Amino acid sequence: MLRIARRFASTPHRVGAIFYGHLMGAMMGANRTGTPAERARALVMDGADVGRALTRIAHEVVERNKGTDGVVVVGIHTRGVPLAARLAGKLSEIEGHPVPAGALDVAMYRDDIGLRPPAATRDTDLPFDLAGRVVVLVDDVLYTGRTIRAALDALTDFGRPRAIQLAVLVDRGHRELPLRADYVGKNLPTALDQEVRVLLAETDGEDGVLIRDVLQTKVVGS
């Protein structure tokens, strides 16, 4: 009788364990739907998120610099350029007067020339004097910091700004140089074997930020 009582007493717990196991199996199965490529990537910012992030950065720029007098915006090729143009447009809307925007190519200033396939060079377009200006340098993703170091070297070849401030849409961490952004759209913790891809309407037909796993691929930092 004692043995039978113990068996029935444990039955609810066994049923609960079985139910929990089936539930977790169903949930894990749902996460495995789709192709391997679809499972390995996730949308972390949509178009509306990108727009809100740029609007917030614009207001932070205005607040920090007490307006936009003497402020110019410079985007790093490739996706930093359209981001810079958008940011300059938002600054103009806020302050009621135009804010100049330019484009900077850093391909020949990188410290990994010879360690990776040569990047295509693009035009640097800085239709203003940098001397005495506050330059808001814009890039899509801040990673190791090496692209920003190259951009700082490139900028100093064109003049001596009063200050350089850095704005990025995404900061994914893993810095290799002592650099930090002044304005960040989204802090996104990542693993070293993940890739962050920014999509913009000007270059990709839509806005968004994707994160995906990259297997057996060495990602060279930005």
What would you say this structure looks like, in words?
With 222 residues, the chain is an alpha/beta fold. The chain has two domains: 2-33; 38-213, Rossmann fold (3-Layer(aba) Sandwich). Helix content is 38%, strand content 23%. It has helices spanning 2-31, 36-39, 47-65, 80-95, 146-156, 201-204; strands at 41-45, 71-76, 101-104, 134-142, 163-171, 183-187, 194-199, 208-213. Strands 3-2-4-5-6 form a five-stranded parallel β-sheet. The protein has a three-stranded antiparallel β-sheet with strand order 1-8-7. Helix 3 packs across helix 4. The protein is globular, with a radius of gyration of 24 Å. Residues 1-34 and 216-220 have low confidence and may be disordered.
